[in-house]
Amino acid sequence: MTGIILAGGRSSRMGRDKSTLPWETSDLLNVIIEKLGTVCDDLIVVSNVPRDIKRKEVRVVADIFSQMGPLGGIHAGLCHARHQYAFVTGCDMPYLVPDAVRYLLEEVQGWDIAIPSQGEYYEPLFSCYSKSCLPNIELLLNKSVRRIAEILKLMRYKAIDWENFRRFDPELKLFTNINTEEDYKQASDK
């Protein structure tokens, strides 16, 4: 499976590059790379700026559709993915659990997307996508549609209730995003 980490965001709510924030023994981006590397044999970081990445086999690719947010990042990652299915996450989700990624890969088989959900809320940046999504993602991006949720209207997706992920992480911290200084402070204190 390919692992795609989106690290090209502007980090506007944080005010500084989130991917470089100190975390555990390294920084957010490299900690996620290490965890994802235990599951994925193909690792891609989508970023429009150079990155200090410790694992040499990681490929850094730029957006093909610039200024299109995470949907543009998913597109770039899928275009470069070596495998049919890719797990996509943000560089601000450091509680990634490799077994949960394996589970999503099992669940996406036969579907275009496997996405965790809590009622009507979906977590598109902790999901598996098939390369079959590319034509419809390009259709949206060509119309300047940036919302990831729009791809769900065009593809066959399997929504997986968040409760199914408690076996991997009882507190469901794996869905935590670090978007602000306050989020980072709270996460660092735990």
Number of helices: 6
Largest sheet: 8 strands, mixed
Structural class: alpha/beta
Query: Can you give the mean pLDDT?
Result: 93
CATH C-level: Alpha Beta
**Overall number of structural domains:** 1
Range of strand content? 15-25%
Low-confidence stretches: none
- Distance separating the two termini: 31 Å
The Rg value, from CA coordinates, equals 15 Å
Q: In CATH, what is the homologous superfamily?
A: Spore Coat Polysaccharide Biosynthesis Protein SpsA, Chain A
User: CATH fold name, please?
Assistant: Spore Coat Polysaccharide Biosynthesis Protein SpsA, Chain A
Strand tally is 10
Shape: globular
Into which percent range does the helicity of residues fall?
Answer: 25-40%
Order of helices and strands: EEEHEEHEHEEEHHEH
CATH architecture: Alpha-Beta Complex
Structure keywords:
about 190 residues; alpha/beta; Spore Coat Polysaccharide Biosynthesis Protein SpsA, Chain A; eight-stranded mixed sheet; two-stranded antiparallel sheet; 6 helices; 10 strands; globular
Describe what you observe in this structure.
With 190 residues, the chain is an alpha/beta fold. It has one domain: Alpha-Beta Complex (Spore Coat Polysaccharide Biosynthesis Protein SpsA, Chain A). Helices cover 28% and strands 22% of the residues. It is built from six helices and ten strands, in the order E-E-E-H-E-E-H-E-H-E-E-E-H-H-E-H. The chain has helices spanning 28-36, 69-80, 98-108, 134-142, 149-152, 181-189; strands at 2-6, 22-23, 26-27, 42-46, 59-61, 85-90, 113-118, 121-122, 126-130, 157-161. The strands form two sheets. Strands 1, 4, 5, 6, 7, 8, 9 and 10 form an eight-stranded mixed β-sheet that branches. A two-stranded antiparallel sheet has the order 2-3. Strand 2 and strand 3 (26-27) form a beta hairpin. The radius of gyration is 15 Å and the shape is globular. It starts with a strand and ends with a helix. The model has no long low-confidence stretch (mean pLDDT 93).
